[in-house]
Amino acid sequence: MSLEEDDDSDRETLPVEGAGVAGATELYPVSHGRLAALASPIDVTDPEETDEDAKRHDAVLRALLTENGGRTIVPMRFGMVFESERALKNVLRGGRGAFRRTLHDIDNRVELGLKVVREQDATVDDETIVERVSDELEPLATSSVDSGEFSDRLILNRSYLVDRSEREAFDTAVGELEADLEDVMIRYSGPFAPYSFVDVKIGAQR
């Protein structure tokens, strides 16, 4: 499920065609006021998170994020199930304040990820590299968070919340880092729905 600001006048342009998870064949917005949750009807209450469904879920979010000029969305965790559209609308009604504040915070922004990994057997100054990356990228982002470590060779792993208007400048800055920094690999990813910058928790209602 994902949440977004909805305008009835352009609902027909929402890129919601295609399959949902757990065998669902339909995707559609369930609205309350100017909020809409993208949902699909399924006949299970606890859908298994298979690789196929995870990819399908991600594809739907990417479509909402990028097609037709892109939408501002609040990504919700995979597999949220509600017993009816009314139950989902009640959640939208009860959480509208939190949802609207979150939508305001991430309005017209996307999440981009950057990992800097030391080449095998290379010797580099980690602190200098982190400082250089921060100097180049932090001014172009509205916020950033550490995304944790996965390797002893990892120097930096951060997610950045970036205005769409700054996306080209951010891409250019990453390209310059790739050209200038030696003995490291830079892994640049995105855009993603801003999972790392959303902290709205709601419970599924069954």
Automatic annotation (TrEMBL):
Subcellular locations according to the entry: Gas vesicle
UniProt keywords, alphabetically: Gas vesicle
Main location: other
Comp. bias (Acidic residues): 1-10
One Pfam family this sequence matches: GvpL_GvpF
GO cellular component: gas vesicle
Chain intervals for the UniProt region annotation (Disordered): 1-25
Superkingdom of source: Archaea
UniProt GO BP: gas vesicle organization
Family membership: Belongs to the gas vesicle GvpF/GvpL family.
Protein name (Swiss-Prot/TrEMBL): GvpL/GvpF family gas vesicle protein
UniProt organism field: Natronosalvus rutilus
Taxonomic lineage: Archaea, Methanobacteriati, Methanobacteriota, Stenosarchaea group, Halobacteria
